[in-house]
Write a structure and sequence with these properties.
The protein has about 260 residues and is mostly helical. The protein has one domain. It has 11 helices and 2 strands. It has a two-stranded antiparallel ribbon with strand order 1-2. Strand 1 and strand 2 form a beta hairpin. The chain is globular and about 50 Å long.
Length: about 260
């Protein structure tokens, strides 16, 4: 089996229901709190063409989380000391930096891309392979860019639809394609010297990302319609990602004042 397929398979099996993205917004990355409605129609399909399928996939993910994912994540959170978990999370966040600054360059964000390169270099050396985040206090803040965002910036995929992937959780069609593309080009994994190391890194990254999201899924459970809450939160999160946190406000003409 090719390394990329091993990576995809292990991520599929270990990351169940990642209710936002993969590293730090619902926990930073991983649980996005719904914000006042912004103009999302330009980047997201206002309909939900896959809703029947999505609801079934969502129910499956929640059942898996309840039966297996939550107990395993709780054991990790309860028995692994906080500073250790923090260092492990930093390590995997650092591994995601190259694909992020590559996409910054592809989007024409040269200054952000250079800052990402410097961040990766500093944390990988002085930060002991990223276990210590030395770059953030030095004002080299993390930026998350992916090929899904790049496709929108290029204007080749203007509108995306919401989709739930079994085990992996919410995506848009554009972000799912972008993540697959990133997996094929991520230099951290393509330059790793053997299949076993790639497998360990992929599995560890998926598991740590899941443990960040798992405690916050209770908030989803408590909603009147958990699926709608999860969908709208994720679409708002992705819209803000695409606009770098500066999503346009709706025009006054969009409101009905009668």
């Amino acid at each position: 089996m090719k390394p990329i397929f091993r990576r995809s398979l292990l991520s599929l099996l270990l990351s169940t229901a990642l209710y936002s993205s993969a590293n730090a917004g619902w926990e930073e990355d991983l649980v996005y709190k719904p914000q006042p409605q912004t103009a999302t129609a330009e980047v997201m399909n206002p309909q939900d063409p896959f809703e029947n399928y999505n609801r079934k996939a969502f129910a499956f993910n929640m059942a898996f989380h309840n039966a297996i994912g939550e107990p395993v994540a709780n054991a990790y959170l309860d028995y692994v000391p906080g500073p250790v978990r923090y260092g492990i999370g930093n390590f995997f966040d650092n591994l995601g930096t190259p694909i992020s600054f590559m996409n910054s360059f592809l989007q024409g964000k040269v200054e952000e891309g250079l800052a990402g390169m410097m961040r990766f270099a500093i944390n990988s050396t002085f930060g002991l392979l990223g276990i210590l985040d030395i770059a953030t206090p030095a004002r080299l803040t993390p930026n998350k860019e992916d090929f899904g965002q790049t496709l929108y910036v290029w204007g080749v995929w203007d509108e995306a639809s919401f989709v739930v992937v079994p085990f992996l959780g919410p995506y848009t069609t554009r972000s799912l394609f972008g993540d697959i593309s990133d997996a094929y080009t991520d230099p951290v994994y393509t330059l790793t010297d053997n299949d076993w190391n790639r497998t360990v890194l992929s599995a560890g990254d998926a598991f740590v990302g899941y443990t960040k999201a798992a405690p916050l899924i209770d908030e989803i459970r408590q909603q009147q319609d958990p699926y709608i809450f999860m969908r709208e939160s994720y679409l708002q999160y992705r819209t803000n990602q695409i606009y770098d946190g500066k999503a346009p406000k709706p025009k006054l003409d969009d409101f009905n004042f009668e």
